[in-house]
Amino acid sequence: MQTWPHQHEQGDPVEFISHVLRGMRFEGFDMTWERRVQINDTVRVMDQSAADRPLTVQFDLMDIETSPLDYTSLQTMLNSWSSQYGMHTALKARTPLLCIHVDRYINQGSEAAVKSERPIHFWGAIDVPFFADDELQIETAEYQILAAVSHSGMDSAGHCRALLTTWPTEQPPISFLLIDDDQPPRRLRAEPEWFKRDVMCLWFCHSDYLDLFHMTDPLQPDPIEGSSTSDSEDATDPDRMSLLRLLASMPKP
To answer: How far apart are CA 91 and CA 122, in angstroms?
Structure first.
């Protein structure tokens, strides 16, 4: 932390993630990607990234203008990234863990870039492209959502909150824990609409590495107050059992 440049101000969450991964040298992350194009008989690498830098996706203006839906799926953004600029872009290899950064700022010609609050659907699995060889052949691998971070406000200010995926054993199922400052986690059945409009960082695990743990302890989690159809409901105490499930479901070394 002594080398973190934003000691006394709010820093960007994705920049912080890269800083931590680079400093701690965690295993399980190899997010190196390349952008390739074939010129005559030669495949050339036109751009590439570092292994500790999250993959950045952007909105496709054509998708926003032509889609009848009022949201964009993360898979659509990933597909646009893979074919951006008429080239082939993919990870160099399958990585156990993956972090995706959503660039919410849209450049509108000569006008200044503006932040988009278009909702992004990210729940479930996504297919992530990776190169199968040193040429242009691309295959996909399935990744499951682990967690997501939202950022409300502008770059230099605002508020960050996180959703953590849980293993839904309750009925009706509890799918997430909402993590916020100075309060216990809140148990959610679905991602809130406001979170979809502000989500900007997502963590995924390769499905082959994901160890879903089923809690067999006879102790039951605290009951949810007031069963209703709302997006979120608070537990009377911190949801210890759900946190244990979450920790147990993380990939094993």
So the answer is: 20
What is the count of structural domains for the chain?
Answer: 1
**pLDDT reported for residue 73:** 93
Cβ atoms of residues 200 and 92 within 8 Å: no
Q: Dmax of the chain from CA atoms?
A: 66
In a domain, 164, yes or no: yes
- State the pLDDT at residue 249: 59
- Closest Cα to residue 29, out of 248, 177, 151, 209? 209
Q: Which residue segment(s) compose the domain that 66 sits in?
A: 13-213+231-249
In a domain, 93, yes or no: yes
pLDDT of residue 129: 97
Low-confidence ranges of the chain (pLDDT < 50): 213-238
Q: For position 139, what pLDDT does the model report?
A: 96
Residue found under tokens 């609050």: 117
The amino acid sitting at 175 is: S
The CATH number for 68's domain is 3.90.70.10
